[in-house]
């Protein structure tokens, strides 16, 4: 025996009041569909109640796994705090690495300056040694040159003395030869005169 339409709606509202508040779906149509499939009205209502509770329990379990807005705000704030902390740590690391690199650069620059100074000192020392050697060599050459000049002057003086002596000897020989020639000529002339006188 079918229930009048008005009575069905009244009892359906009473059923909806008993059902848990969850996702809305047409329970009235669901009951009608079940009664068409051979369920009694009581069975259809019980089935709709069970299905509705199952759906609502699923929704509650799903909702329990979801975070509320307050929790999300807290998580967002915590993430911002963590990000700011991480940013500060990264900045500190970058600053520390920068300081380390700057110190390393300064150390290398100081080492380069020390090496450059040492290199300049070694060059100056080598140049001083070379200059000293050159100065000593120049002094030795000057001394040798002075010795050679003195020897050359002495040789020139001896040569000049020898030349002078030769000139004196030549002049003496010339005088002797002239005297000898004069004597020979005089003797020859006397002999000629004597011969002429004797012949006449």
What can you tell me about this protein's structure?
- The protein is an all-alpha fold.
- The protein has a domain of 62 residues.
- It contains four helices and no strands.
- Helix 2 packs across helix 3.
- The longest helix is centred in the C-terminal third of the chain and has 131 residues.
- The chain is rod-shaped, with a radius of gyration of 73 Å.
- 2% of the residues are buried.
- The N terminus is likely disordered.
Keyword list:
200 residues, mainly alpha, 4 helices, 0% strand, rod-shaped, disordered N terminus
Characterize the largest beta sheet: strand count, sense, and whether it forms a barrel: none
Radius of gyration: 73 Å
For the residues shown, what is the average pLDDT? 77
| Strand fraction | under 5%
Shape verdict: rod-shaped
Question: Segments where pLDDT lies below 50 for 5+ residues?
Answer: 1-23
**Share of residues in helices:** over 70%
Measured distance between first and last alpha carbons? 230 Å
Class of secondary structure makeup: mainly alpha
The succession of helices and strands, N to C, reads: HHHH
Q: Please give the count of helices.
A: 4
Per DSSP E runs of 2 or more residues, the count of β-strands stands at 0
